[in-house]
User: Fold this.
Amino acid sequence: MTTKVLNILVVEDEQHLAHGIKYNLEAEGYRAITAKDGRIALEILEDPNESIDLVILDLMLPGMSGYAVCDSLRASGNNVPVLMLSARTLTEDRTRGFDVGANQYMSKPFELDELLSRVKNLLTFSQQNQQDPPASETRRKTIISFGSADVDFKTFQVTVRGTPVRLTQLEMKLLEYFVDHHERVISRDELLEKVWGIPSSINTRAPDQFIRRLRKIFENDPANPQHFLTIRDAGYRFVAERDKE
Assistant:
């Protein structure tokens, strides 16, 4: 059986770095192509003759930032894994990267071995997710209601207390996972693997940040959540209605 060669798009305006990443990816058996700016990257990703399995995306690009590229990519419905690279190390930069749909975020300078490891893990999880049918297709309805919220997972329409709310793709994916596993305690490690598609060994507080944001959106009192509960030393638990005490 012939093994499919996986295609990786490297979006990086520093040509020496782009060529270095490309060289090492090809040494690992991948096919790598480069783009020097966001416009070219989107053209490649929209090309029906190209099949990109992963994007390595620099944040600081000429003309169009990596944030804008990733946001446009997700808005078009493309769920290709994105590994974002940036010299910025502030928490808000990482959070914004996750907001627009990045799967992982690495700070420059980085170790080559870590980059290759993250690439391998992202591709592995992506391939597994393509083979496994979404739980949502068999375990829940398209439209759900809890508290003062109504959520349509098919159209991405969300209203809270009668007011339309826009969720990012990753926020919707996290909410969807909670709904699919209603009332079960879910660990941070499980969320990293199943929602973010990254190994639990990766050090990131992204799940905690996103759950805080879901609370701000859906809870009447985020400091006293009724739906997105923290289970000490275990993880999180979603309930449509708070348990009676």
User: Anything to note?
Assistant: The longest strand covers residues 7-11. Residues 133-140 have pLDDT under 50 and may be disordered.
